[in-house]
Specification:
The chain is an alpha/beta fold. It is 41% helix and 14% strand. It folds into two domains: 141 residues, Aspartate Aminotransferase, domain 1, CATH 3.90.1150; 230 residues, Aspartate Aminotransferase, domain 2 (3-Layer(aba) Sandwich), CATH 3.40.640.10. The protein is built from 13 helices and twelve strands. α3 packs across α10, α4 runs parallel beside α10 and α5 crosses α6. The radius of gyration is 21 Å and the shape is globular. The N and C termini lie far apart (44 Å). The model has no long low-confidence stretch (mean pLDDT 96). Bound molecules: pyridoxal-5'-phosphate. Pyridoxal-5'-phosphate binds next to α5.
């Protein structure tokens, strides 16, 4: 008899980017040389202030639990940082610090979504959003973010999808996997619908060609901003994130945090304070590299026959229509991994609208991207 697991586990889908990466790791253990374009993680070292502050904090014995909402100085630094990046005053009391943005996401979805509740989200979307909704007993309602419209969220389509059970609208700008940045007008339109906005702003700062993100907080207080240190500061392994939420929601989230996680790691929070107080522009160097890689990858993929209808304005992904090669994105991703030794993420990971597409990450060196393009050029003719 198989063991009995709760129904919510059966409703979770695998995170395919991770599945491809784990298969690639196995191949590497067997001696193969794989180029990772499937990973959504900066290849740069973490912000230089992070390690120093972390080590100092550990040596000074700052290794205990903290306030479940996070260290007061970190919440103040996050509020000041959000206020610098956007023209908005943030009360530090609205901030909950978490172990990575993912934990903040779990807290926020758990707060808002109950059995049978609905959450509107774009398709394609970050794979974990609908899983968090399902885990809370809710129903994800996907709205097409159409490449023909530059992946703008269609406010009228969102309005039509609203029901008395709708508990939140998810927006992510810049978005994973499309790199799309939502206009201020779209953000205003979504905020006008009278439903809380969950705004994932984790890729803010990684922007190209003059793109500018509008924070949901510039428009409405009825927003749950999800953000963290993983992307802008290349601190994925530190696991540090946060949510900025309506004041009235803080207490309930605090109680959940106390029970689920107690607090984020103390010394990692000190690293967060140091990074936010550091005035050197560590991001500029990463951005310059991402800008070159982005061009290289977009042009190279187009030459190979991938269709990229909209160039990404943010993050570090290119989302490419691969139906010229195979309409089954999972089969194609594994074929490319096996034959070209290049990891990519199957578009189906990002919802039905992503089927037939592949996501390529340029969080890898120019040399690696060039080699990957050569390997793809050699392998693709046999797949058409
Ligand atoms: C859109 C989006 N939100 C959140 C996360 C999770 O980030 P964290 O490492 O802070 O948990 C990711 C990670 O790839 C992401 O792409």
């Amino acid at each position: 008899m198989p063991p009995h697991f709760a129904r919510r586990t059966a409703e979770l889908r695998p995170f395919l980017a991770m599945e491809v990466m784990e298969r690639a790791f196995e191949m590497e253990r067997a001696g193969e040389d794989v180029i990772h374009l499937e990973i959504g993680e900066p290849d740069f070292p973490a912000h230089p202030a992070a390690a120093r502050a972390c080590i100092r904090a550990i040596e000074a014995g700052q290794t205990h639990y903290t306030d479940s909402r996070g260290l007061a100085e970190l919440r103040e630094a996050i509020a000041a940082d959000h206020g610098r990046r956007f023209e908005v005053d943030v009360d530090p009391e609205r901030i909950i610090v978490s172990n990575g943005t993912s934990s903040a996401m779990l807290l926020v979805f758990s707060l808002l979504v109950g059995e049978g509740d609905e959450v509107v989200l774009p398709s394609p979307h970050y794979p974990c959003y609908p899983n968090f909704v399902r885990m809370s007993g809710g129903v994800p309602v996907a709205i097409l973010a159409d490449p023909e419209a530059g992946y703008a969220m269609d406010v009228e389509a969102v309005r039509r999808a609203l029901t008395p059970r709708t508990r939140a609208i998810v927006v992510s700008s810049p978005a994973n996997p499309t790199g799309a940045v939502q206009s201020e007008e779209t953000m205003r339109g979504l905020a006008s619908l009278g439903v809380p906005i969950i705004s994932d702003e984790i890729y803010d700062g990684l922007l190209y060609e003059g793109a500018k993100v509008t924070s949901a907080l510039e428009i409405t207080d009825d927003a749950y901003v999800l953000d963290g240190f993983s992307k802008r500061y290349a601190m994925t392994g530190y696991r540090l994130g946060y949510a900025i939420v309506p004041l009235a929601s803080v207490r309930a989230l605090q109680v959940m945090q106390q029970n689920l996680f107690i607090s984020a790691n103390c010394f990692v929070q000190h690293a967060g304070v140091a990074v936010l107080r550091d005035r050197s522009d560590a991001l500029a160097e990463m951005l310059a590299a991402y800008t070159r890689r982005r061009r290289l990858l977009i042009d190279g993929l187009r030459e190979l026959g991938f269709v990229i209808p909209v160039e990404p304005k943010g993050a570090f992904y290119v989302f490419a229509d691969a139906r010229a090669f195979d309409s089954d994105s999972l089969r194609l991703a594994y074929a490319l991994l096996d034959r070209a030794k290049v990891g990519t993420t199957p578009g189906i990971d990002f919802g039905a609208a992503g089927e037939g597409w592949l996501r390529f990450s340029y969080a890898n060196s120019e040399a690696a991207i060039e080699t990957a393009l050569e390997r793809l050029a050699a392998a693709l003719p046999s797949l058409r």
